[in-house]
Amino acid sequence: MAALLCLWLVAALAQADEGAGFQPLTVDDPVNGGTMPGFVFYPLVEPSRIVWRGPYEVHATPGARVTDGSKPLVVVSHGHGGSPLGHHDLAVSLAHHGFIVATIEHPLDNFHDLSGTGTAKVLVGRPIQVKATIDALLADAHWNAKIDPSRIGVVGFSAGGYTALMVAGAVPRFSRFLDYCELQPHDAEICSALAKAKSRGSQGTELAALQADLRKWGNPADSRVKAAFVMAPLSLLFDKAGLSSIHAPLFLSYAENDDVLVPKYNALSVAPFLKTLTGINRIPKAGHYVFLSPCSPQLAASAPAICTDPPEVDRVSVHERINADALTFFNQALRIPGQVKDQ
Length: 343
Fold this sequence. Notes:
The chain is α/β, with parallel strands linked by helices and 343 residues long. 35% of the residues lie in helices and 21% in strands. Strand 3 and strand 4 (56-58) form a beta hairpin. The chain is globular.
């Protein structure tokens, strides 16, 4: 780990004078029709300024000109009910160090619309939407000139971690919902929809239909993605066979006291089968939502459940570690010229 931190310090010093800019992004949604809103973060040669977007204090300059040169791309997939700004500090950190970072809002599974929970449009559609974001940026004349298509990564948190694993090649087996909900019947967030299907006598049929839809919108995996940084993933749907097809290096981070996606059934259950795992980080005493950006007072007042950590957990310090881990991992996995030499 000392070597990882050393590499991070070298990378930070190499581009310490860079700031970050950002601008809105709109991507066509191949799953539902319509469009997906989001943002693109990117490096600047001048320091950033602070702006507000709703309750988010974003340390990036809106609309500024991106620096010249070809850059790696990272696409961020938010968690269930999340926002394209839910990981803005990580996006800014990567942009400060030479990355282009795209965030999107997943339709039917975001903070203002959860109507697709448990459906194929979410459980199968999410990775397709990440792929569509990559397609859109590479097809755009402006961004195509700024992105190196051989250096693309993904970041995912919670349901976004599940998404990132699928983009990296993992194949879910939806019947595993049955096994999990037998063990944890009181997990309402994951098992309530299955309980309703059971009451209708259709849970097996519905899960089989979900499995049959796995390639309804195309292959969820994307060979262009060369690295995946996965945080507190919904991973109880993956078994050893389903994880064997992952093609990209992975970094896994989880919270010790996560009671939303319990590590025993999620992160820790898949870690032994991840052949491409390059690193794992346990955040002591923290809960699930510690991976979201440190909250502004406004957000903390309106959404205390996702902003409140145990007294012994400092989310700002935790995110310094998360951001350093992500930077070092992507610098290594994507082989950023001039920062990390091939071994």
